[in-house]
Structure formats: C-alpha cells, structure tokens
Amino acid sequence: MIIIGITGTLGAGKGTIVDYLCKKRGFLHYSVREFLVEEIKNRGLPVNRDSMTFVGNDLRTKYSPGYIAEELFKKAELSGKDSIIESLRTESEINTLRRHKNFYLFAIDAMPEKRYERISLRKSETDHISFEQFLSDEEREFKSDDPNKQNLSRCIKLADYIFNNDGTMDDLHNQVSEAMKKITY
C-alpha cells in the first residue's frame, strides 16, 4: 500500500494531482479539507477559510498536531489500497504520516495569479474571495512556529517531489507520472 500526501499553495493543483492518481492509478482519496468541512458543519459554523483554519488548529490543539492526518491514515489503512491524503498543511501531519511505510509527499506550487484564477473558476465554498484576501490567507498559512498551525513553506521543503504547475495539465501529469515511476520502480 502506497500513501501519497499532497501539500502545496492555495489553488496550485492539488486536486488535479488527486484526479490523475485516482483515475490513472486507482488511488483512493482522503481530504483534510473534506474532514474539516464536515467538522465545521457539525459545529454550525460558516464554511469558509477562516473556519477551516480555526477548526483545524482547534483539533490539532485538542488532540495532537498530527491528529487529522492520523485519522485519515486510519481510513486509508482500513481500505488496504493505495491512497492519497490531500491538503497537508503542518509539519506534524507530515511527520505523523512519515512513520508509516511507503509514504511519499508531493508538493505543488504555481504563480499566485494563475492560482487565483483557478480558485475563482472552481467556485468552492471557501473560494469566493478577492485576490488581496487570497494573498492574505496564503501568507497566514505559509509560516508558523506553532506546531498546531499551518506552515506551508516547511511542508513544501519536506516534500519528496515538488511540482511546478505554471504550464499545462499535461505538463503536470508528466511530472507526476515521472515521480510515480521512481516510487513504484
């Protein structure tokens, strides 16, 4: 069983990698975002990036910095199938998953303007924001010394494979395919 963790900047293409691996390689998908949205709704909060940040930080503080990743890993492990855990945002989540055999971390990034354009097109509950708010949200999640809070810059540095998604979807698929060849030799 292979576990691929995915981290990256907002709107960089994490979901595109997920779609590719699920369709081409039969991976199952587990999402930190979906885990948090379910918890947000259970708490009766509005589904937005502020609530996601608050609830994620609250769960990490209450249980452990790697709690969310560990909960999603348990689901993947029960399936026994190759799985993706998407939207890892803290070093502790990654370290939690690194304790398991056959874990690999993918990171993805792209130019901010391109990423904002993408989130504007996908129109999810948390993406109805201005470009300025988009940059502010990313800055808040990019660096922290608190193990319970997001630190995308550190997560990206910990990646086994880093992909640039400024090009076409085929370019990204080729990068992922090359990484998978190395993982599965």
Descriptive labels:
185 residues, Rossmann fold, 9 helices, alpha/beta, globular
Give a description of the structure.
The chain is α/β, with parallel strands linked by helices and 185 residues long. The protein has a single domain (3-184), classed as Rossmann fold (3-Layer(aba) Sandwich), CATH 3.40.50.300. It contains nine helices and five strands; from the N terminus they run βαβαααβαβαααβα. Helix 2 packs across helix 3 (49-62) and helix 4 (67-79) runs parallel beside helix 5 (91-98). The model has no long low-confidence stretch (mean pLDDT 92).
Quick gist of this model?
The chain has helices at 14-25, 32-42, 49-62, 67-79, 91-98, 112-122, 131-142, 152-157, 169-184; strands at 3-8, 28-31, 83-86, 103-109, 161-164. 56% of the residues lie in helices and 14% in strands.
DSSP summary, beta strand count: 5
Biggest sheet: strands, sense, closure? 5 strands, parallel
Shape: globular
User: What series of H and E elements makes up the topology?
Assistant: EHEHHHEHEHHHEH
CATH architecture: 3-Layer(aba) Sandwich
- Can you give the helix content as a percent range? 55-70%
Beta content:
5-15%
* Derived structural class: alpha/beta
Strand order of the largest sheet: 2-3-1-4-5
Just give the CATH class.
Alpha Beta
**Number of helical runs?**
9
CATH topology: Rossmann fold
The Cα radius of gyration reads 16 Å
**End-to-end span in angstroms?**
14 Å
Ranges where pLDDT stays below 50 over 5 or more residues in a row are none
Average pLDDT for all residues: 92
Count of separate structural domains: 1
CATH superfamily: P-loop containing nucleotide triphosphate hydrolases
